[in-house]
Amino acid sequence: MVASVNWETASVATIELDPPEWPGHLAGQHLDVRLTAEDGYTAERSYSIASAPGERLAITVERLEDGEVSPYLAGELRAGDELELRGPIGGYFVWEPGDGGPLTLLAGGSGVVPLRSILRHRLGTGSDVPVRLLYSSRTWEDVIYRDEFSEHRGGLWVSYTLTRSQPAGWTGYTGRVNPDLLAQAAWPAAAHPLAYICGPTSFVETAAAGLVGLGYPPERVKTERFGATGGR
Amino acid sequence: MDAVDGNAIGSLLIDVFGTEMTAAGSTCASCGARRPVAELVVYQRAPGTVVRCRTCGSVVMVLVRRAGIVSIDVSGLASLSQPGAIA
Questions:
Q1: The dihedral of CA A46, A52, A53, A55: what is its sign?
Q2: Is A50 a domain residue?
Q3: Which of A29, A95, A200, B81 is spaced 20 to 30 A from B20 at the CA atom?
Q4: What order do you get walking across the sheet with A12-17 strand by strand?
Q5: How crowded is the C-beta side of A231, counted as CA atoms within 13 Å?
Q6: Whether residue B82 has pLDDT greater than 90
């Protein structure tokens, strides 16, 4: 059952869920949502889990105007509605405090969602693993969890790059992710970092190749691609 | 439609194997490249789901879900090994 729907931006909503049974999840996993129409037609999509293990289950959904599922989830859905869930799913793009760090987290758009779960898990477990997060977004208005990241004290450095337009007086990065930007925003390879990259496929390919070019071993670079736009 | 990756077939693979398989190791039968299933290239717009090797591009798996039944062709894989399984 849907516990709450909270808007992060004009087109992105975080949906808190109270499933009758939930086995618990790991930071970075996703779940499937299935919608069934009155005529029996079903559509299923995967969404990354936004909450940390032990917290109330939540997903963050970007509404895609030509989407089949997201306009319902981030638009029509209300607290008290029922959703059919399956999960948690995934065992690769996950982080536990024992995996260590330092962590280089690279997010493209709503690819920040599973990284938020990792960050909240780090905070909740009292982990002192240092983190650098680089979050690429089209505009400042598209940035989700903006207020939340500033609440993390100590050991978390967040930098933004805005690819389409920047507010007046912007002092963050601009433009798409590239090797120079990564060299500034990511931990140097000599620190033996562990990297998690999530976002649109083209973002992930560029960012992963960039980190490997900086000397990250490929097996220390975990990736999750969600296609051209949106999805999870 | 851009390709996604093996993270996206976690649910299909649970239907087939009954357990999480995206962290499992795979070996391409064509070129021998080894990588976690999560790092394979996945196309979801074909009739069914086509999984290719990220090194040589060969088809390693094809999955089709129809009327609640999942059918999987793994002839492009030389091996699939689940971490944590007892050898």
A1: negative
A2: yes
A3: A200
A4: A2-7, A12-17, A58-62
A5: 24
A6: no
User: Cβ separation of B11 and A46 shorter than 8 Å?
Assistant: yes
The reply to whether A114 and A219 lie within a common domain is yes
Cβ atoms A178, A209 nearer than 8 A: no
How close is the nearest chain A Cα to the Cα of B6, in Å?
8
Among A46-60, A195-209, A218-232, the least confident range? A218-232
Q: Are A224 and B3 a contacting pair at CB < 8 A?
A: no
Residue A42's pLDDT band, with cuts at 50, 70 and 90, is confident
Query: In whole numbers, what is the pLDDT of chain A averaged over residues?
Result: 94
Q: What angle do CA A15, A65, A177 make, to 5 degrees?
A: 80
**Residue range B57-78: mean pLDDT, rounded:** 93
Question: Does one domain contain both A103 and A83?
Answer: no
Asked if A93's CB is within 8 angstroms of B7's CB, the reply is yes
Q: How far apart are CA A204 and CA A72, in angstroms?
A: 27
Write down the pTM of the prediction: 0.94
| Residues A172, A121 within the same domain | yes
Whole-number percent of chain A with pLDDT over 90: 88
